[in-house]
Amino acid sequence: MKFILMMGMKTDKESMSKGIMTWPKEDIQAHIGFMIGLNKELKEAGELVSAEGLAFPDEAKMVRAGKDGLPITDGIFPESKEFLIGYWIIDVESPERAYQVAARASAAPGPGGAPLNMPIEVRQVMSGPPEELQ
Amino acid sequence: MKYILMMNATKEVFEWFSKWPKEDLQKNFAFMRNFSKELKDEGVFVATEGLAWPDQAVIVRAGSDGTPITDGVFPESKEFLAGYWIVDVEGPEAAYAIAARASAAPAPAGTEGTMPLEVRQIMSGPPDEFA
User: Fold this and answer.
1) CATH code (residue A79)
2) Angle formed at CA A9 by CA B47 and CA A23, multiple of 5 degrees
3) ipTM for the predicted complex
4) Which of chain A's ends, N or C, has fewer CB atoms near its CB within 10 Å?
């Protein structure tokens, strides 16, 4: 079963005042080092399908098709919006295993090396639409 | 440059989608399949995935002993990722043009507006100074 593990971030003032870019450089390096190690372990266990990090939310654009099909872009988002900042897709035996891996990622080190215990959203990845609708 | 094109929606929108007539759903899925095929033919396709519905979403945090603590309660305003495409193109304008094509996916007659897609670049790795 494939699961996606998603890390989100908010861009309100309070969240930004604690964001990773405000951490001391060695804490950022420790955090990134942890993530690189986790990816390597998942790869060696044959569980890693893919992992990606996204550009920061200030680069996010909302795109819709206009009447002529041309893109209409907008860069203004509600303050409550949670932006996806990165994800893993893993292929594991059960949801419980996916939750275990998510808990590992959740405990990634933050400022001073303390575990962040950040929330990770976990959901199954579908192989395709239901057969009756194909 | 790699870009991710994300379809995000609140639970309310997912519920509306689940009530579409069968033929409208079939048209939409056929459009999506064909769209992915076009992206492959154009040589810009990297990946696409569809996620399980939000009622299956779980938030996981590590407890103090490192074991997972799960929670399935979300604020009503929360937008859930429904699915995404990753494309590899020359620049943001090309990514926005592709997003506009997905945005015009067919919906039931009388649906107002087109589907919004969030577009952002995918990073190849952390900045050199932190790696």
Assistant:
1) 3.30.70.1060
2) 115
3) 0.92
4) C
Alpha helices, H only, A1-134: 13-17, 25-44, 95-106
Other beta carbons within 10 angstroms of residue B124's beta carbon come to: 9
pLDDT in tens, A31-61: 999 999 999 999 999 999 999 999 999 999 9
- Rounded Cα gap, residues A118 and A103, in angstroms: 9
Residue B129 has pLDDT above 80, yes or no: no
Give every CB contact of residue B54 below 8 A, 6+ residues apart in sequence: A123, B11, B14, B74, B80
Size of interface A-B (CB pairs under 8 A): 162
Residue A101: domain span: 2-126
A92: confidence class by pLDDT, cuts 50, 70, 90: very high
Who among B59, B103, B130 is closest to A29 (CB)?
Answer: B130
Residues β-bridged to residue A89: A4, A50
Q: Which two tokens stand for residue A56?
A: 């920061």
Q: Which two tokens mark A1?
A: 């079963």
Contact present, A53 and A89 (Cβ < 8 Å):
no
List the single residue in B59, B97, B100 with the smallest CB-CB distance to A119: B59
Tell me whether residue A53 is in a domain: yes
